[in-house]
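The record is passed on directly below:
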Amino acid sequence: MQIRANGIDIAFEDSGPGTGAPRPVVLLVMGLGMQLVAWPPAMVQALVDAGYRVIRHDNRDIGLSQHFDHLGPPNLLWTMVKYKLRAGIRPPYSLADMAQDALGLLDALQVERAHVVGVSMGGMIAQRMAIAAPQRLLSLTSIMSSSGARGLPEATPAVRRVLMRSPASPALEDIVAHYVQLYRTIGSPAYPIPEADMRQRIEASIRRSFHPVGTMRQMVAIVADTHHRAQALASVRLPALVLHGRADPLVPFACGEDTARRLHGAELVGIDGMGHDLAPGVVERLVPPMLQFLAANRGSAKGAGA
């Protein structure tokens, strides 16, 4: 489905609205370059079965939401040089803009308040939502994400090497092979995904939409938001849960610890053997603490959803 929100076209899926009493809404915000279909069906179904209305969307510039190709491809190398020099970075758009997209989606769906769950970059967007409009959130859950504070540990050298590579050719099999290698490198060592399953998921995602230049623009938005967001998190006074893998090679566990420290009263749950993915074994361990947290902060369904 598509809807006009915050002045752009956003693709979304709405699961479990039902026809009876309104359900509390959970808004799921996906990470860098990832589409709404990347949310594991088992996680979505667990939330629906627990009595929630689950809304997922493609972030701007990715999937079936509006692309911003008129802004041109960014210079990632120059962006990183400016970041290292602590010079100002002007992104094509900001994480704050992406947060307004998500809030605009809630507006368009007539949802007053929602539990917001973000993964990786989606956790950063969720943090921006909490900073900009805390009255719209019932709670904040940040999964394998970061506050963006300077000085936090960075991705391992192996991950950085893979991130700098590109597919060998535009052929589907080479694109799939590239992402298999990437997801193997950042994935959960204790919960490996069978390669056949991984290939099937990657190919389905590529066939739905493949827009790497959008990922590049999103990456610049992430880099431009570092440090500033970390300072602003001190103002957030919302129920908060931070879920993070202790074996994350892309966004190390210390980033989750830092996020939890900056969010007043946040609960931190570390998952042994979890890397930077939502493998089936990881989902089995993320869902119970998340459902427990949401239930404790469920609030009234009245006014929480349409």
Remarks:
- DSSP finds eleven helices and eight strands in the chain.
